[in-house]
Design brief:
Layout: E1 10-19, E2 27-31, E3 38-51, E4 56-61, E5 66-70, E6 76-78, H1 81-86, E7 99-101, E8 107-110
Antiparallel strand pairs: 1-3, 1-6, 2-3, 3-4, 4-5, 7-8
C-alpha cells in the first residue's frame, strides 16, 4: 500500500534514458545487443506541484522540467529522509511551487518557474 502523495512533497522519479554515451549520474547502465547504444536510468529529484482531481500528479524538478504522471507510477516514489538531507540542493525550493486548479481539472495559474543562475553551464 502506497502512501498518498500530497502537494509540496519531495519525490524521486527514475527517468529511463537511451544514448550513445551515458550521463555521469547514470545508474543501471547496460549496453544494447549491438553495443551501439546504452540504456540506463537517472534519478530526478522533484516536488509535487499539483495534485489533479483525475489522480495525476504534476511534478517539477530544480531545472524547470515538469511532468504529469499517474499517482501509481512505479518509477515514482517518495524521497526518504536521507535523500532529503543529502540531496536537498537537488530539489526545487518550495516557493516556486504554487499552482491553482479549476474544478474543470485545468491548471489555471502557476508561477513562472525560473531555475537559479548557477544551474547548468554558463
Amino acid at each position: 500500500m502506497r502512501r498518498e502523495l500530497k502537494l509540496g512533497m519531495f519525490v524521486v522519479y527514475r527517468s529511463q534514458r537511451h544514448s550513445t554515451s551515458p550521463e555521469p549520474n547514470a545508474k543501471g547502465v547496460y549496453a544494447t545487443p549491438h553495443v551501439d547504444d546504452y540504456s540506463y536510468y537517472v534519478e530526478e529529484y522533484a516536488r509535487v506541484a499539483a495534485v489533479l482531481p483525475d489522480g495525476k500528479l504534476l511534478i517539477c524538478t530544480k531545472n524547470g522540467t515538469q511532468r504529469t504522471l499517474q499517482a501509481e507510477e512505479p518509477l515514482l516514489r517518495r524521497a526518504g529522509w536521507w535523500e532529503r538531507l543529502l540531496f536537498r540542493k537537488n530539489f526545487p525550493p518550495c516557493t516556486d511551487i504554487v499552482v491553482r486548479i479549476q474544478p474543470e481539472d485545468k491548471i489555471l495559474e502557476e508561477t513562472a518557474f525560473t531555475p537559479p543562475s548557477h544551474v547548468g553551464w554558463q
